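Worked example 2:
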Amino acid sequence: MSAEATPPPQTMDDHCPTRIAVSGASGYIGGRLTRRLVESGYRVRCLARYPAKLQGREWAASPNVEIFQADLEDHEALAEVLRDCDVAYYLVHSMTSAGASYADHDRALAMKFAGAARAAGVGRIIYLGGLGETGPDLSEHLASRREVESALASTGIPVTVLRAAMIIGSGSASFEILRYLVERLPVMITPKWVSTPCQPIGVRNVIEYLAGVLTTPATIGGTFDIGGPEGLRYREILRIMAEELGLRRRWIIPVPVLTPRLSSYWIHLVTPLTHDIARPLAEGLKNPVVCRENRITGLIPQHLLSVREAIRAALNRMAGHDVETNWSMAGPIPGDPDWAGGTVYEDTRLLDVDAPPEAVFQAVCRVGGGHGWYAADWLWRVRGWIDQLAGGPGLRRGRRDPEQVGYGEALDFWRVTGYEKDRRLALRAEMKLPGEALLEFLIDVAPGRGCRLRQRALFKPRGLLGIAYWYSVAPLHHFVFRGMLEGIRKEALRISSAGPR
């Protein structure tokens, strides 16, 4: 079993609750925790703003899983969803969606959740917060976590708080930041935070603690620091990452002039994280984040992964294409644009493919990430660089899995907003654009001729700049989209000839 793998289920005892609610089940930690709870035999009620994000998860089809659409802003509806639940996990963080006001938004959501849990008769709330010293020098990001703790406890329900620093695991934001910095920068001009002490923890250990508190009555109402077995400075963690990647020594030169704002732009340019997400994280790096007590290790004993072990486990998961959840899965999914009214430009192309629909769909689902875009990859790279410089995600997010996609997942600077197996894949652009863009693939069975693949690119411009943008890129569509269709056709034929896997 790999170091990042889920431990075997434990036997439930008399203290074990029967129905568990998990808010944020579609997120990085929530998705992994839900799987762990289901494998342990719990009945789990998943709360997700966009339930379609959970389609395709192996555990979603379990008879012990209930999936509910839940808007944390709606007190009455939330209370109804939480009814009959013994324990509720609160794994929600609006930093990816609420912009500069995320702290106020997080506090308000936590207050509403606590009120709804009280009305529903929930007996206990479990929250994963952040490590950090208390006091006026605490960053806004970490201070917000403290405020959420207080808000959750405001109605008198016992709250178990686990405070963690950097979480290292395949697909985690912290891991991606480390990996990209080390891979891309042999020489790093860094802020002073590279000398800040930190106590990282492997994602496997986080999940084990979150699940373990359910059957540990001594944790009810308590606050616990959780961390790995060692405290290191960030520069030491970067060195270990370079060694595990098999790279030469990285030269790190700290300077005092890089503010959190400048640091966040630097992180944005090098890593997959946007400036809005990077800034609060960069501000938090100034605070030492180490455990001040270790009571949890006696209550829930387990093997704690060292930083090197956690990084190695994450890299092995990536190499084996076994990344269960990814940081980019979190956040809101905007609906398709309202295409009614106004100017909408469309580029539609058709191609007959002598292959079954499942082979064509499999080829379509390989777009983006390491596979590229089948044609004119250099144009996609240029577009990614431009988007990155404009503050967008660029191509750096890649994709969670090289073969599989699901609703809500990121494909470079696109987001999956429509998924019908062997029938339809719709991608909404998240790049910086003067308008709204949708790229859609539709597969229709064509008797006697395999199937017909229809590709639609829709663009709704904002003002004259949007119109100018469309006409400036339209001449490139012949090379990009036509070449993409031909590449999909060739890949579908190859998949079809190879037979079932």
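The two ends are 24 Å apart (CA to CA). Confidence is low (pLDDT under 50) at residues 6-14.
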